[in-house]
Amino acid sequence: xxxxxxxxxxxxxxxxxxxxxxxxxxxxxxxxxxxxxxxxxxxxxxxxxxxxxxxxxxxxxxxxxxxxxxxxxxxxxxxxxxxxxxxxxxxxxxxxxxxxxxxxxxxxxxxxxxxxxxxxxxxxxxxxxxxxxxxxxxxxxxxxxxxxxxxxxxxxxxxxxxxxxxxxxxxxxxxxxxxxxxxxxxxxxxxxxxxxxxxxxxxxxxxxxxxxxxxxxxxxxxxxxxxxxxxxxxxxxxxxxxxxxxxxxxxxxxxxxxxxxxxxxxxxxxxxxxxxxxxxxxxxxxxxxxxxxxxxxxx
Length: 299
Description:
Blueprint: E1 5-9, H1 14-25, E2 29-34, E3 41-42, H2 46-53, E4 58-61, H3 73-95, E5 103-109, H4 132-146, E6 153-159, E7 161-164, E8 166-167, H5 169-177, E9 190-191, E10 193-195, H6 196-208, E11 216-218, E12 224-225, H7 226-237, H8 247-256, H9 262-265, H10 273-277, H11 287-296
Parallel strand pairs: 1-2, 1-4, 2-3, 4-5, 5-6, 6-11, 7-10
Antiparallel strand pairs: 7-8, 9-12
């Protein structure tokens, strides 16, 4: 096994692209699985995926269609299949490896927990929620659990909202620039987040800690509520005020821009208890620091 070879599945999104670059910077050899012709293996070729996985030390699966859309029948199916079927494919290919990776970190989501505005949701005490997004997360993790991987440690990574060069920050900043950067809905709903660099570092940390097993929450230890979130976004842009948006207006706007209000109205309070207990130190523990760093980077 090459201890410095990683396979990234889904390496073309903003998280995958960041991971690709950072692994290379850290001296790793990177192989990819994806839809593009430039990938080392395509999703419809189990044999090529097995060859790509064979001898690698780490598999990181980031594949999954964006959830920033309306949850109509077609989009629901694509969201589910893009997570479950890709995980199933990786499981088949890994089972055929003569020398499989020692660690398989598979994306999951902090949205698997219920709407929580009373207390944080850790891996041990968190309560799973209900609804479409939770069903997707459960099916995703069930598929990982079902994969035959006797020599591979499988870790579902329950990722909070990731801040980086893309994702949720662009629309939030655009709202603030146009004076609509006030709190959304009640403003008390929790916003769990993680800087993309800390997400990368947490993957490296988990791989290096064989004792970390089962689901792991990837989120800053310092979530904020929506009111504080939007205030910090305005500060980062030097915008002095923002008009609040009531829930009913968000529902109207979500239909117009083809998205779901769940993305801003669900209270996500994800506690990274396993990472903290294992000694992981966040480089960006505060949202103010993370936004400042992203602004300096031009992101």
